[in-house]
Amino acid sequence: MKAAILGTGSWGTAFGRHLAHKWDQVVMWGIEPSQVDAINQTGTNPDFLGDIPLPPNLRATLDLNDCLENALALFVVVPSQAVRGVMAEVVKSTTFPPGIPVVNLAKGFEVSTLQRISEVITDELEQAGRLADHPVGVLLGPSHAEEVALEQPTAVVLSGRPDFNWEPLQNNISGPFFRVYINEDLPGVEIASGFKNIIALAVGMTDGLGTGDNTRGTLMTRGMVELARIGCALGGRQETFFGLAGIGDMITTCISRHSRNRNFGEAVTTSEKNPQEILAESIQVVEGVFMTQAALKLGQKLGVELPVTKQVHDVLFSGKPPRLAMRELMERQLRTELD
Ligand SMILES: NC(=O)c1ccc[n+]([C@@H]2O[C@H](COP(=O)([O-])OP(=O)(O)OC[C@H]3O[C@@H](n4cnc5c(N)ncnc54)[C@H](O)[C@@H]3O)[C@@H](O)[C@H]2O)c1
Q1: Which atom of ligand 1 is nearest to the CA of 285?
Q2: Total domains, the chain
């Protein structure tokens, strides 16, 4: 049993390491020769996972055909804005096995089209005339790579095309430290996972300003209301936003020292540099920044108010001081909680 993974970053490697307990062979495809060589030669991924050892049945390759050949499932773990380009190459590959499930693990939307990432994958398969062939799904939820790589108990959600039986894959991905639930609300799961990074940026910004737990709790709760509001307008189910991909991932991302979105938000308020300069220095993708742009456009298109997202966007892209953004949120017109 062979699994193919696109991406040799933190999550691709940690997830591949987990799969290697159960699958005979796991092959990750990457574009950075230094990352691929380090994984194969040292049995670690020093850029992203320090010295955590990787098993011998997990390897990396620069050759996409090699990665895909004879795979029984394909997992897409590159940054969300790169998925379309990568899938365009996958569908051209002569070794892409017909019929295998294609599962997205990236969290975000494509900014240029405002599509969910599973929709981007679906588009590329459809254009190549291969959509009928491949079930498309997502595997998302509170799953920091650093903790999965250390085998700390984690639970996530598998969601996908409703006419496909996802249970065999659920079984083949689950393990003693990694529990997989199925949720049939694909849009809700994907929307929740993308949007919560915006709230993590906001929490990081207020952490950087020195505010405390009252502020964190307020941002997470009102952020979840905002997320559910746009998520339902986009076709997600309310209950999903209170599940693992929703509130579960929101809490994890907003309180964790591993969260690059929270950490980036904090750096924005504590660093002398501007947000774009800080971003340029990060070797890891900060999905919330792209998601803020996509969310604001979606909110405008659907007529849904997104006050936290708007303030985060203005801090990141219009030079608004974070303290002013926080004050404007606090001084919005007073209202009832449950509307
Ligand atoms: N890190 C986590 O804990 C975690 C957990 C769950 C989901 N995710 C999601 O998984 C996705 C990947 O995150 P990550 O943490 O692995 O990112 P990362 O920054 O650690 O690694 C990104 C990887 O993608 C590769 N890459 C970048 N541009 C590419 C391109 N155009 N084509 C091919 N490869 C490219 C990089 O070389 C690198 O190997 C993101 O959407 C993230 O939100 C991450």
Answers
A1: 19
A2: 2
Q: What DSSP character marks residue 175?
A: B
Element (H, E) at 311: helix 307-317
Judging by beta carbons within 10 Å of its beta carbon (0-12, 13-18, 19+), is residue 240 exposed, middle or buried? buried
* 310 noted as active-site residue: no
Looking at residue 297, the DSSP 8-state letter turns out to be: H
Nearest atom of ligand 1 to the alpha carbon of 144: 3
Cβ of residue 16 lying under 6 Å from some atom of ligand 1: no
The answer to whether residues 108 and 135 belong to one domain is yes
Q: Which pLDDT score is estimated for 184?
A: 96
Residues 164 and 249 in one domain: no
Q: Is the CB of 87 under 6 A from ligand 1?
A: no
Q: pLDDT digits over 169-194, tens only?
A: 999 999 999 999 999 999 999 999 99
pLDDT at 339 over 80: no
For residue 144, which of 100, 196, 92 has the smallest C-alpha distance? Answer: 196
Range of the domain at 306: 187-330
pTM score: 0.97
